[in-house]
Specification:
Blueprint (H helix, E strand, L loop, with lengths): L2 E4 L6 H10 L4 E5 L9 E3 L5 H8 L4 E5 L5 H18 L4 E4 L14 H10 L5 E5 L10 H10 L1 E4 L6 E2 L4 H13 L5 E4 L8 H12 L4 E4 L2 H12 L1 H14 L4 E2 L7 H4 L7 H8 L2
Parallel strand pairs: 1-2, 1-4, 2-3, 4-5, 5-6, 6-9, 7-10, 8-11
Helix pairs in contact: 1-6, 2-3, 3-4, 7-11, 8-9
Amino acid sequence: MTYIIHGATGAQGSPVFTALTSAGLDAVAAVRDISKIDGAAIAIDNSSVDSLADAYRGAKGVFVHLPLGRPEDQLAFAHTIAVAIRRAKPARVVFSTSGFSLDPTVEGTDAVDVLARELASSGVSYAIVEPRLFLENLLLTATMGPTRDEGALRYPIRPDYAVSWISHLDVADVVSRLLTDHSVTGIVSVGALPGLTGADLAAGFTRYLGQDVRFEAISPARYGELIIPLFGEAAVAPVIASYEHRQHQPGELIPEARSAQVLLDLKPRSVERWLRDLGV
């Protein structure tokens, strides 16, 4: 029996694929173009229930997250995944919200909310990994360049805004555990506790780079201007909106009671260790 990994060539799926194969487990990349995979792969059509059900059938576990795109496309994909899971009944499903926060007391209509509810009612063993902000955001040229060249870590959050930052490497550790250990179900929040402020991030970069790094808050609009060349205006618009929203929030911390630290005894890497593990 195999583990099916969606997006195994991407930022979230690739570390999960690597973690499983490094542990000697049978992982199969579920991708549109199998020529991009050096290893076991299966071609899937994200718009086809039959295609996904065929990939999931008999699987020991499935890791899935919703790719970036238009909300209507994400919603369609969520429904397709849900139907395929009900039809194929894999032994376990682990779903990452990719930074989207879930409130179980509210019946949201976003794709992530819909898929979370569908999993809960599917009758299949499942867990939902709920990260906040990814540390890998700080590696984009728009941020990493000034950090190295000017000692200025510029990001669109307030200096006092504490966040449960998490890396894709740590998410992969949690996903791998949840795929192989069915004892924990429901939502598992992942991220630093206590949260990290801009000064904490800068201190981690200072230790790793061996040079002084300071944190500088920039506006969401300015950040958008810097990353539009990388992702395009349409993709960046909701990113800007999310950081505008953060300007008016007290912070962004995961609830400790449902954290990976409490539920799985897994503590995320420090900023310095994350940078060292990546070899940036």
